[in-house]
Automatic annotation (TrEMBL):
This is Uncharacterized protein. Residues 29-56 are annotated as: Disordered.
Length: 56
């Protein structure tokens, strides 16, 4: 795990969760598939202080 400061606002790390591999990603519009292939288990973990975060 490589923990780093992201966008000068929060700490984040990209993770590979083997138990999540093979599930279908649903990050498209209205919960639709965003990719034709199943997930490889990659997720982003973000540690953000209160009042800061994604979509700031």
């Amino acid at each position: 795990m490589d923990l780093s400061i992201r966008d000068d606002l929060w700490w984040g790390a990209d993770l590979r969760l083997l138990s999540w591999a093979g599930y279908q990603s649903r990050l498209g519009p209205y919960g639709s598939k965003d990719k034709p292939a199943p997930s490889n288990g990659t997720a982003t973990l973000i540690f953000a202080p209160e009042g800061r975060g994604v979509g700031h």
